[in-house]
Amino acid sequence: MRELGVGLIGCGVVGAEVVRGIAEDREVWARRYGVVPVVRRVAVRDTSKRRECKLPLSVLTAHPEDVLADPSVDVVVEATGRVEEARNWMERALDAGKHVVTASKAVLARHMGELLERARSRGLSFGYEATVAGGIPLLRALREGLVAYGITEVAGILNGTTHYMLTRMEQERLPFETALSEAQRAGFAEPDPSEDVSGEDAACKLAVVSRMALALPVTQRDVYKEGIRDVKPRDLRLAVKLGFRVKPMAVARRSAVEGKWELRVHPALVPIESPLGRLALEENGIRVTTERRGDYFFSGRGAGGAPTAGAVLSDLLEVALRPGGPPAVEMADSASTVSSEQFVTGHYVRVAGDAARLRKDLEERDIQVIAAHQEGQEVALVTGRGTPASVLPALAAASGEAPRVWLRVEGDISA
Amino acid sequence: MRELGVGLIGCGVVGAEVVRGIAEDREVWARRYGVVPVVRRVAVRDTSKRRECKLPLSVLTAHPEDVLADPSVDVVVEATGRVEEARNWMERALDAGKHVVTASKAVLARHMGELLERARSRGLSFGYEATVAGGIPLLRALREGLVAYGITEVAGILNGTTHYMLTRMEQERLPFETALSEAQRAGFAEPDPSEDVSGEDAACKLAVVSRMALALPVTQRDVYKEGIRDVKPRDLRLAVKLGFRVKPMAVARRSAVEGKWELRVHPALVPIESPLGRLALEENGIRVTTERRGDYFFSGRGAGGAPTAGAVLSDLLEVALRPGGPPAVEMADSASTVSSEQFVTGHYVRVAGDAARLRKDLEERDIQVIAAHQEGQEVALVTGRGTPASVLPALAAASGEAPRVWLRVEGDISA
């Protein structure tokens, strides 16, 4: 039986799941694909620490160099969660003629271009399915066909932590801090949740997807982002009354400005009766809109040990069956993103006023009102699509004050 | 630029979309993959008929043999909708050293084993992504990873026509015949809808999925099937009151009987608040349950020209990039399906009686009642999971009559 020699750098939650997965899936690999994965070397910070997986002591080492230098290692799985060190190890693995599989979105979002080119020029595979929505074989689906249909938009929920929090805040009227503690207890939020809450995590994933599916040479710094910290339970509830739910959205969309793209991560209202609006808690989901073959929708669990390990294993399988991997993506010449003033979305606002009068006044100003709800002295309403400048000043003029709360609205909206 | 010579047999709805798609996607293929698809020969029944796509007259022929004999054709797309003739053409294409891509589920469900083996032994690709849920890259996702996680169940809505009909019957309280005419007008049902309505179409798709994902050597004849003709609008409505929706389900599940499988197509209640329960109209969706990495869920449009052509194009791309294709699936020794008496599901019944008394009576007989609803002299209720024999006789005894209506219940059900 042919063997695929696997080396790991890092054996935390994901790494340990990968080691377990290799043992568990071995028999299916042998039967269906005629090849078995074998763990040959694992570098960890502390070789004496107890691990959540069985490994012979002889396989463990404290030195990543040992993994890179081991001639019996065909493919290196990088699962450390670090950034610049991880990049360095991956580069050296490729230089040593080894395929690489990684789960590190932070590295990919920053250095995807160089890493893929380095792999390509050496005829090696570089697998990164695990960096975005581990529980959904999204990158593979994009690469294997959808890219050819002319993708005009990729929009979805790519961060399970904030989705869990917003869902619980709406369901139980929890304030932000309580929802965060709950997410931490449930194992969906890190002890330091800032990357999730700020949108940084989703921005990294969106950068990877944008490079891969849209051929945009971007990094996470090209993605506009707003976190969910200012979202109030009251607006989550009012959104539902208007037929919407607030979701932590990540959107890459062809801009109305010719040749440019909107790349953005922010909370947004989406229609309850839409594929994304129907998701809840830690679920991830992505809608891919194509020019020529309509929409595709994928959903599944967000990150976490098992689904992420699953994505790593599917990359390992690809290395085993098709070493050298898919052709590199030819990038567009420049990033060409628009700034936030040019984003075209619907708008949710909460303002003082009378719903009926506001609606009439706005319609006279050519602002379409999709839904409005009066609550005490305040009105919550959703407008049709436009740039902020085309809608918000008219709203302020109509209500006599600047909106007290403003959120973007995504998806198919019509009155 | 490298070219992939494409020949088509059949140029109806799907074939014409494929021809259009090849022209439309050509530029993306060239840029991203360094290869362009070129239509070299197209066999049609009537070469003088007007087509929905542009083709030079010189390419058209009335003889499939011309496609098979053309040395400039690398891959034959079979899109005739016929069965035994189509099988013959595909075999001869493989014998002539050409890769094959097909959208014909009826052929695959019957002859998949022989066709795949013939392709494998000649080192040729055989693409059939388009045979199941064209708008969802399902087979690829299964093959590229999920199969390795130990699949215990594939359950979903694989027929868009009956899903459309059941949705409209529930929404508008339409009788079966009205919903059928509407589906035909909307282009979702064939003039002869019997394959959809009887469950035959879904059974073919389930057979293909079962062979591919579960390595079961089955054909569509091994799939138990019930059509949707007897489903009443009244029960669709009562199901909603109980928290369920009736969906045209196709299920392949590891049986409680060791080493055996349930393969079945029938209408069933699923919880409204579940990924499948949330789908509507012509949408398709599939939940894949794995032993080791949890659930995966996919949804998208059902069959139809554009999504089916998309699936064919993704197969063509695979032929272009990786001729010879994925390794053949090693089959289990025998089909090992259980008969319908051994299916384990929840049960929906409508009987005469009093809800409270019936619930108490059933619970004394150790039948779990998930939900019950009284309407006039009748009770609609959903029980926990069991074989028909473990539940229905107790129900009859408790209510004093055989159930007036009985349907299976799928998905996570608990009180």
Q: How many H/I helical runs of chain A?
A: 13
| CATH architectural type of the largest domain in chain A | 2-Layer Sandwich
Assembly type of the chains comes to: homodimer
Mean pLDDT across all amino acids of chain A: 92
Based on Cα principal axes, name the global outline of chain A.
elongated
The percent of residues in helical segments of chain A reads 25-40%
CATH topology annotation of the largest domain in chain A: Dihydrodipicolinate Reductase, domain 2
Q: How many domains comprise the coordinates of chain A?
A: 3
Largest sheet of chain A, in brief, is: 10 strands, mixed
* CATH class category label of the largest domain in chain A: Alpha Beta
Description of the molecule:
- The structure is a homodimer of 415-residue chains.
- In chain A, the strands form two sheets. In chain A, strands 7, 8, 9, 10, 11, 12, 13, 14, 15 and 16 form a ten-stranded mixed sheet that branches. The first copy, chain A, has a six-stranded parallel sheet with strand order 3-2-1-4-5-6, with helices on both faces.
- The mean pLDDT of chain A is 92.
- Chain A is built from 13 helices and 16 strands.
- The first copy, chain A, is of the alpha/beta class.
- Chains A and B meet through helix 1, strand 12 and helix 11 of A and helix 1, strand 12 and helix 11 of B.
- Strand 12 of chain A pairs antiparallel with strand 12 (294-301) of chain B, so a sheet runs across the interface.
Topology (elements, then pairings):
Two copies of one chain form a homodimer.
Chain A: E1 2-9, H1 13-33, E2 35-43, E3 60-61, H2 64-69, E4 75-78, H3 84-95, E5 99-102, H4 105-121, E6 126-127, H5 138-143, E7 151-157, H6 160-172, H7 176-185, H8 194-197, H9 200-214, E8 224-225, H10 233-241, E9 244-254, E10 261-271, E11 283-290, E12 294-301, H11 305-321, E13 345-352, H12 355-364, E14 369-375, E15 378-386, H13 388-399, E16 405-409
Helix pairs in contact in A: 1-11, 3-4, 4-9, 6-7, 6-10
